Amino acid sequence: MTEPTTDSDLTVVYGAEELVVGPDDETGVVIREDAAFAALDGEVVAVGPADEVLSDYPVEDAATAIDATGKTVLPGFVDPHTHAVFAGDRSDEFVAKLRGTTYEEILADGGGILRTVDAVREASTEELAANLAAHLDVMLEHGTTTVEVKTGYGLDTETELRMLDAIETAGDGHPVDVIPTFMGAHAVPRGMDTEEYTEAVVSEQLPAVAEQGIAEFCDVFCERGVFTAEQSRRILEAGREYGLTPKIHADEFAAIGGTDVAADVGAASADHLLQTDDDGRETLVGADVTPVVLPGTAFGLGAEYADARSFLDAGHEVALATDFNPNCFARSMGFVATLGSVGMRMTPQEAIRGITSAAANALDRDDGTGTLRSGSRADAVVLDIPSARHLSYRFDTNPVSTVLKSGVVVHE
Ligand SMILES: N=CN[C@@H](CCC(=O)O)C(=O)O
Ligand SMILES: [Zn+2]
């Protein structure tokens, strides 16, 4: 990076081998050979061949100028599904799963999510925020500039609110944009039955969450042995009444109607979709619900991957997310892009769209997040790879060399 030469708020990135702008067609708009963008006051004002961009926005006038020769520039990565605020260690369950115990058996035995609930209830809000901030640092180093974070390890009003406080605190002091989701309906706490707990989520937790005013989305684990489709619908509709946009965990282990619920409540996304069939896919597409697939979870569980190709072959986009949680210790969207390609046959361009603009759609962002178009916020990743397809192709080291948030270098 050259030294700042003026005190203007101009940022220029130039000389890139490839620069991906956004998904204006199936392959996305890619500018090749000596590509550049310029940003003024944090917003992209020009993008294209370097000679054109730099004639209007010369390097000498820039406060920040990045020579991306030999490199690739992508929109900042958007991770639309994580459970990144937690405490404790479940690596022993990883070993149990290697020996054949299933995820559902561990949860039914009071482990899994419920063990993390014990650890989170014991942790202070400050500890939870510090844990999350440390994970955000790693995500940023790997190119993520926007991330959604869910609650759901409290399962009582007080701890769910503390989780939201921790999410807000960690996000406030951090360059990564953090989008909070309330997920009180992540599991049923010990000592309660599902119906009783559904009632508690609707009549106790949701009003308190709305009053607190931090959460933007409401999510439910609609799954065999967890919340039924009807309970999920009830919770998401109640959340909507309080202004929370619905999201849903659907069809991870069994297809029990989560896609219908997603369509009926107007969910921003339906996530997992490992067991979704043609009808379920049509339902989501018809209702404009963004499908989010989580190949890290399938990889970690040794499960089959979601059928992303069926959406893509029918002309629909698919978002990718890490699903970072104690059962899926993945914070790198680059690795998720590789899993998308290797596990689900997504082309590198489809995977890049999946971790940028499609992921932004899963979070209902229509402000250019996940693109580098004129008018978008200048969130960008400069990668030490000679073309965009190397993001999926290489999976040995982190290729991120510089991350910009609103035109400012926040990691290099
Ligand atoms: N499946 C439900 N929730 C998370 C896992 C959370 C956990 O196991 O702690 C998921 O999306 O993968
Ligand atoms: Zn999840």
UniProtKB/TrEMBL annotation:
4-imidazolone-5-propanoate binds at residues 90, 153, 186, 252. Residues 72-410 form the Amidohydrolase-related domain. One of its GO terms (cellular component) is cytoplasm. Pathway: Amino-acid degradation; L-histidine degradation into L-glutamate; N-formimidoyl-L-glutamate from L-histidine: step 3/3. It is found in: Cytoplasm. Binds 1 zinc or iron ion per subunit. Pfam families: Amidohydro_1. InterPro entries: Amidohydro-rel, HutI, Metal-dep_hydrolase_composite, Metal_Hydrolase. Its EC number is 3.5.2.7. Signal peptide: none annotated. Its cofactor is Zn(2+); Fe(3+). N-formimidoyl-L-glutamate binds at residues 153, 325. One of its GO terms (biological process) is L-histidine catabolic process to glutamate and formamide. Keywords: Cytoplasm, Histidine metabolism, Hydrolase, Iron, Metal-binding, Zinc. Belongs to the metallo-dependent hydrolases superfamily. HutI family. PANTHER family: IMIDAZOLONEPROPIONASE (PTHR42752), IMIDAZOLONEPROPIONASE-RELATED (PTHR42752:SF1). This is Imidazolonepropionase.
